[in-house]
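User: Teach me something about this protein's shape.
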Amino acid sequence: MFPPNVTQRQYWTGVLVVTVVFVLGVLGLYLLTDRELPQSLMVANVSALPHGTTAVASTHAILRTRGSAIDAEIPLPPPGQAIELRVLPEFTAWPHYRVRLFRMTADDQLRPIAEVGGLTTDDDSFLTVYVDAAHLRPGAYRLTVVGDIDTDAVDKENAFILRLRPALTDPSAASR
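Assistant: First, the predicted structure itself:
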């Protein structure tokens, strides 16, 4: 029943080791992969933010900047508040745009965080989206504007680098 020169105890020890390694590997993959966040993390209308998000903490215009690797530095508000992002696309996509948000890892890989489509520009040519800050953490993010699936601009993209930082709780701390 057992291979030659293998005792029953050695056999079951081997089976146990293989099982533990397999379970730990599956658990590790589960914990290391970014699980999908709620669909309402980024929305086109502030009223569509999740229940419990009470206010827009700040508004930021996102547009191409020259001479800086970071297009916008944004303080993270406390949970329960949202960030309004007004993005200026550099191309025309008729009738709709799509905005995507990615978290940048230490090795510059992009982890998708949120996406919203069907967007049209405001009268001032900006796209407006609202991001629920409860699911964000300090670090680098990449925000992209692309032509939506139903446009003639599906192959066009503008990318902006955002740095989210902890908000200062003591306003005088910035001058220290």
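Now, about its shape. The longest helix spans residues 8-32. The chain has one helix and nine strands. If you'd like, I can walk through any region in more detail.
User: That's plenty for now, thanks!
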